[in-house]
Amino acid sequence: MGNYMDRTYxxxxxxxxxxxxxxxxxxxxxxxxxxxxxxxxxxxxxxxxIEHVIVPEGVKTIGRRTFYDCPRLSQIELPGSLESxxxxxxxxxxxxxxxxxxxxxxxxxxxxxxxxxxIPVGGTKYIVTDPSPLTLIMQIFENVEILPAKFIPNTIxxxxxxxxxxxxxxxxxxxxxxxxxxxxxxQTEEFRTAISDINNPVDPETEKQQDELLKKExxxxxxxxxxxxxxxxxxxxxGDTYYVRAxxxxxxxxxxxxxxxxxxxxxxxxxxRNYLSRNGGDKYLRVDVAIxxxxxxxxxxxxxxxxxxxxxxxxxx
Amino acid sequence: xxxxxxxxxxxxxxxxxxxxxxxxxxxxxxxxxxxxxADPSQIKLVKEAAESARExxxxxxxxxxxxxDLVLAIRASKKRRREEELYSRxxx
Lengths: 317, 92
Prior knowledge:
The complex is a heterodimer. Chain A is an alpha/beta fold. Chain A folds into 2 domains: 1-147, Ribonuclease Inhibitor (Leucine-rich repeat, LRR (right-handed beta-alpha superhelix), Alpha-Beta Horseshoe), CATH 3.80.10; 160-313, no CATH class. In chain A, 15% of the residues lie in helices and 30% in strands. Chain A has helices at residues 185-198, 204-218, 222-225, 301-313, and strands at residues 3-5, 9-12, 15-19, 25-27, 31-32, 35-36, 39-40, 52-54, 61-62, 75-78, 84-85, 98-101, 111-113, 125-128, 135-137, 160-161, 242-248, 253-263, 266-279, 282-293, 296-297. In chain A, strands 1-2-3-7-9-11 form a 6-stranded mixed β-sheet, with no helix packed on it. In chain A, strands 16, 17, 18, 19, 20 and 21 form a 6-stranded antiparallel β-sheet that branches. A 5-stranded parallel β-sheet of chain A has the order 4-8-10-12-14, with no helix packed on it. The N and C termini of chain A lie far apart (47 Å). In chain A, 42% of the residues are buried. Chain B has 5 helices and no strands. The longest helix of chain B has 23 residues, at 67-89. Chain B has one domain. In chain B, helix 1 crosses helix 4 and helix 4 runs antiparallel to helix 5. Chain B has helices spanning 3-14, 19-35, 40-51, 53-60, 67-89. Chain A binds chain B through residues 3, 5, 10, 12-13, 15, 17-18, 20, 41-44, 46-47, 63-65, and chain B through 1, 5, 8-9, 12-13, 16-18, 20-21, 23-25, 27-29, 32, 35-36.
């Protein structure tokens, strides 16, 4: 692909290695000479004095610490082409107030991960213009504002099937389901925690107190941020349980809510398990929604999809 | 990549910001070279420059920054780090 060097940029094979400019508002070029820029390299814009950066369409990855320690950076615009953001890409940005993601040309598989991106606490406002089918894993901090209606996914590619697990079982009562999940150690531990609470549904008063505690501690509106995206990548197809997962990095807590939905004269329960857990130092909120009838989990996919569509329409989240 | 271009790139990276920043960018450069199946000696040079950014920056500030200057800086850095390690272990 080639090399490029001028006073401002050094780039090789589509990767910007360094930026030496003094711009306050920086529109990063999508091309340097004939070279398409696809990656902002590790540390490339680190310590710069930019205040507002626009990452161009075509960039797929933002590397580690790319915008680390930019003392004046307050606004970031990210393109729809972005697929991943690496460790601490946005760490130590004391002035950061907004990140805008533009959904311009997404495929179902594209997603943005702000996992471990290190976006700092304090005044960060996330504005996602049209996330579906965008999948985001975000760290939520105070003053987060996310427009609720836009974040109910319009294109759920599929309902997730629970991974094969020998701890999965169901009983006649909706409040005594146990979920098991195979996967990484952290996931197993989280679900062990989750399992114990599933068998002890929270009463409305306790749930209200937990809500208040969450809101006070993390200052975010759980209801609005409950579903931002679908994590379609992390679980294998097996088992008979259908549920939709949405994941937001958030904090450390755990509670659950049961929402009734009526569909075609039948009553269903949307079992929403929200829990916040700390995974290797990162915090996240995960929301699982299981669709249940009076006999237990709905495992008929078509039925589950219909009920979920109904509950989405009712904006019960 | 030819040696002259490589040294020009390393110099620009070293002189653009802190040693920490230079380290990240040089490691990124090493990764790109690896993906290009570049000469292993070039990759090694860049990686060692990343670890030795503090001394290498001083060398890069000179008008004629050649490979041997970088190699000397890397050696000096290794020596300093060895001494620091010994000191921290209380043997100095």
